[in-house]
Amino acid sequence: xxxxxxxxxxxxxxxxxxxxxxxxxxxxxxxxxxxxxxxxxxxxxxxxxxxxxxxxxxxxxxxxxxxxxxxxxxxxxxxxxxxxxxxxxxxxxxxxxxxxxxxxxxxxxxxxxxxxxxxxxxxxxxxxxxxxxxxxxxxxxxxxxxxxxxxxxxxxxxxxxxxxxxxxxxxxxxxxxxxxxxxxxxxxxxxxxxxxxxxxxxxxxxxxxxxxxxxxxxxxxxxxxxxxxxxxxxxxxxxxxxxxxxxxxxxxxxxxxxxxxxxxxxxxxxxxxxxxxxxxxxxxxxxxxxxxxxxxxxxxxxxxxxxxxxxxxxxxxxxxxxxxxxxxxxxxxxxxxxxxxxxxxxxxxxxxxxxxxxxxxxxxxxxxxxxxxxxxxxxxxxxxxxxxxxxxxxxxxxxxxxxxxxxxxxxxxxxxxxxxxxxxxxxx
Length: 428
Ligand code: DOR
Fold this sequence. Notes:
Layout: E1 3-7, E2 10-13, E3 18-21, E4 23-27, E5 30-35, E6 47-50, E7 55-58, E8 60-65, H1 78-88, E9 90-95, H2 106-119, E10 123-128, H3 142-148, E11 152-154, H4 163-175, E12 179-182, H5 187-190, E13 195-196, H6 199-204, E14 208-209, H7 212-228, E15 232-234, H8 240-251, E16 256-260, H9 262-266, H10 288-299, E17 305-306, H11 315-318, H12 335-344, H13 350-364, E18 380-390, E19 409-419, E20 422-426
Parallel strand pairs: 1-6, 2-7, 8-9, 9-10, 10-11, 11-12, 12-15, 13-14, 15-16, 16-17
Antiparallel strand pairs: 1-4, 2-3, 4-5, 7-18, 18-19, 19-20
The structure holds (4S)-2,6-dioxohexahydropyrimidine-4-carboxylic acid (DOR).
């Protein structure tokens, strides 16, 4: 029988509590055994992967990415997105439905999954739309999409402005065991804003978006989560007030989870000072105070997940005056090293970081495997915590280049990604 042995690495799994140098034996794509002495783990026929000096974690899972296929393949395809994911250390990703056509029905879900199968690498879990065409007017067919394989519903990119429709979405999704992921933004408050509201926007002559554009919707959705007793996940938390509202709601025991993205704990609105459209994103980069609140939210467990919100755009949408440029930045190939900075700063333990990038996301979207346990698929990431590199967008697997982190010196990187026992990225 074909076996693989991952030997000598520091295995860290928040799910099982393992943290130590142990070996992992893999058979038929699954984890067969974790340990280091006696037993089958000594099998001389095993293929050996030497992980000494490296960190071995359950495969990282990115629950918020945009793959742009179908419709905008010039920005990203399922295949290029999966490659970017594998290089970033991700074994599974959830892709948002704002494609063209929108993923609001079985045929689009099927199409994405077929493409993902052909790309044969990273696991892809599509997210279906909350509303037909993301128009916020009527609900999409959750039963049909769930049967086709979606793990959640979201109108990400757009808010659901109608509170009654959002209530029905939570109730309907609950019936199908689907998570609702909310893009919290009041479009009336956003108006024609292009960046965070405040002195910097005034200096740059750009219209601002107040924090309240996010927080009023977080407050509304918490009220609806309470009303419906349905699970709700708040996407891309960026504002201090949102962190506070989520913290309070969680203390009251609501079925509420939240994510943020590396740009919200790594950058502030200062990144926009040079009119760099790569730093134009929804919600916008905010102040030091917001960035610190997001960090604190990660630290105290208010924010459960770090997701990339990988949002590829081409130069056609980005090389424009700031007002006209598209929102979003790519992140799958920088997410892990930027997040490791939080560990270096003493804000998160390595264990917490792995929980936020692997086991928490797996539980939140209800994958049937969480962590490194015998019987689970052999999905794992090997990380070199000491590897230093300079971000060079030209080397990215993503088809797009819209990152504000180009040229940053970072430390710590995935060097091998394994999905179901198969190596999908190897840079050891
Ligand atoms: O900046 C953003 N870009 N925010 C979103 O919510 C959507 C995303 C995109 O799809 O480009």
